[in-house]
Design goal:
Layout (H helix, E strand, L loop, with lengths): L1 H11 L4 E2 L2 H4 L16 E3 L4 H13 L4 E4 L17 E4 L6 E5 L4 E5 L4 H10 L2 E2 L12 H7 L6 H4 L6 E7 L5 E4 L13 H4 L8 E8 L1 E2 L3 E9 L2 H15 L3 E8 H10 L13 E9 L6 H10 L3 E6 L3 H12 L1 H8 L6 E3 L5 H15 L4 E7 L4 E7 L3 H9 L1 H14 L24 H14 L12
Parallel strand pairs: 2-4, 3-4
Antiparallel strand pairs: 1-2, 5-6, 6-10, 7-11, 8-9, 8-10, 12-14, 12-15, 13-14, 13-17, 16-18, 17-18
This protein binds flavin-adenine dinucleotide.
Length: 463
């Protein structure tokens, strides 16, 4: 192994091969603190050629590789689960290679943070619409590898829908340049889609061509107390029929989630006098000088189930409303451990899921506390469970398998997915076998074997 370390140092420079525990520690623990790994070293290539050289050296020595971007993933996908792996951090690959305004595309390296890409697009008077609360740290490589979703999927789609081309380093160290900025290209299998959502198990994504959109001129942002999830879904339908694609976000938040934010995040204030059982954060994007505030108020006034509402009057208020939504994950982290689920069901079955899941959980785990929030507009809920008392919570966490069974079986019964946007990583690698058909698992294994016969790319994840 000392020979491999020496070759890696020669290939990318000594300072970019980290071996001291103090230097490698931040890379070896996941964001939630649930997984702690070990690695032979952490390497930080600065170019695609350097990344390819690292992979060639590792492949020659049969050493496994763990790719990592911003390390904000929530399934342990970027944390090594073996002992002698080389962790490749892509964060130095962080250049914006090109912005093509006429083609509405931006070409960015994998280590660019999502925030930096959104900023670069905005400077060019364009929107890159992927929007997630971790965007200051999460990278484009990580976003594509997890097929990240976020709050604007209902209008713009997820990372897969936003990607036109990629460049990748294959498990044998070859570079595949698929950086085509085409919206039409029917020339056989669309290979980029193999790498998107693969969580680093098929190769390293080093660069991508992403779609850009017109930059909205203004927003109408409303915080609405709503009687029930069913009423929220009916409201979404009427907003869409009145405003079409201008509806760009529609997030549901239950009372417990908001209470945690108000309790734990300094400066947070509930927007309405009383915290209702259910609320939705709605945003419409405007592309002309007109503003929809009056029309939105009219629509909310006529919708059934709307109990109260406030509209952001300026950008500061808009940001404050969004912060309440974005801070839910951090507030839960401060509150303590919980059993987390990132599930999706068809939008038409959301209400049924929420009612049936709560009834079944309360019956089996009396006193259980549900935190339910998420991107209801695209059928994705974050459904997190804990006990209010610390001692009871420890006992509940020990029974996470039983809790998962209730939630995931119901999701499956309703035609849903047990991982809507976070991926499988280590967390759901075994759980998924219960819900995917044998033929799907077999096809995935065939693809893995074809691209990575030595099983060196991110072992122990996904499959
Ligand atoms: C507060 C908070 C809010 C979040 N909100 C959302 C949300 O709304 N929607 C959502 O989808 N996710 C969300 N996430 C999860 C996370 O931010 C996303 O999964 C994100 O896309 C991960 O990016 P990353 O760069 O941090 O990837 P990492 O965590 O570093 O890696 C994630 C996976 O991708 C692989 N990988 C990383 N880079 C590469 C690469 N260049 N090539 C190949 N494989 C690679 C890793 O091996 C790992 O399997 C949230 C996380 C936090 C902490």
């Amino acid at each position: 192994m000392s020979e491999l370390l020496a070759s890696l140092r020669a290939a990318i420079g000594e300072p970019n091969v980290l071996t001291d525990a103090i230097d490698t520690a931040p890379y070896l623990k996941d964001w939630r603190g649930r997984y702690q790994g070990e690695a032979l070293c952490v390497v930080r290539p600065g170019t695609t050629d350097e990344a390819a050289k690292i992979v060639q050296l590792c492949a020659a020595d049969d050493v496994a590789i763990v790719p990592q971007g911003g390390n904000t993933g929530l399934c342990g996908g970027a944390t090594p689960c073996g002992t002698g792996e080389v962790l490749i951090s892509l964060t130095r690959l962080n250049r914006v290679r090109a912005v093509d305004i006429d083609n509405n595309t931006i070409t960015v390296e994998a280590g660019c943070t999502l925030h930096a890409v959104r900023e670069a697009a905005s400077v060019a008077d364009r929107l890159f619409p992927l929007s997630i609360a971790s965007e200051g740290t999460a990278t484009i490589g990580g976003n594509l590898s997890t097929n990240a979703g976020g709050v604007q999927v209902l209008r713009y789609g997820n990372s897969r829908d936003l990607t036109l081309g990629i460049e990748a380093v294959l498990p044998n160290g070859q570079i595949w340049n698929g950086l085509r900025g085409l919206r039409k290209d029917n020339t056989g299998y669309d290979l980029k889609h193999l790498f998107i959502g693969a969580e680093g198990t098929l190769g390293l994504i080093t660069c991508a061509v992403l779609k850009l959109f017109p930059l909205p001129r203004s927003h109408t942002t409303a915080w609405v107390a709503i009687e029930s999830p069913a009423a929220a879904i009916a409201l979404l339908a009427s907003l869409r029929s009145d405003f079409g694609d201008r509806v760009t976000a529609f997030e549901i938040i239950d009372a417990t989630a908001l209470e945690l934010v108000v309790r734990h995040i300094p400066g947070s204030r509930q927007p309405l006098p009383v915290i209702p059982q259910w609320q939705v954060l709605i945003e419409l994007s405007e592309f002309s000088a007109s503003d929809s505030d009056a029309d939105v108020i009219k629509c909310l006034t006529h919708a059934s189930g709307v109990q109260d509402a406030m509209l952001a009057q300026n950008e500061t208020q808009r940001r404050a409303l969004w912060r309440l939504r974005e801070d839910i994950s951090e507030a839960q982290r401060i509150e303590g451990l919980s059993i987390k689920h990132d599930v999706s069901v068809p939008v038409s079955r959301i209400d049924e899921f929420i009612h049936k899941a709560r009834a079944e959980l309360v019956k089996n785990f009396p006193g259980i506390r549900v935190v339910c929030f998420g991107h209801i507009g695209d059928g994705n809920l974050h459904y997190n469970l804990s006990m209010p008392s610390a001692i009871e919570n420890v006992k509940l966490i020990e029974r996470d398998g039983e809790v998962n069974r209730v939630v995931h079986d119901l999701v499956n019964e309703l035609g849903g997915s047990i991982s809507a946007e976070h991926g499988l990583g280590q967390l759901k690698r075994d759980e998924i076998k219960r819900y995917k058909s044998g033929i799907e698992i077999e096809l995935m294994q065939c693809i893995k074997h074809a691209l990575d016969p030595g099983g060196l790319m991110n072992p122990g994840k996904v499959l």
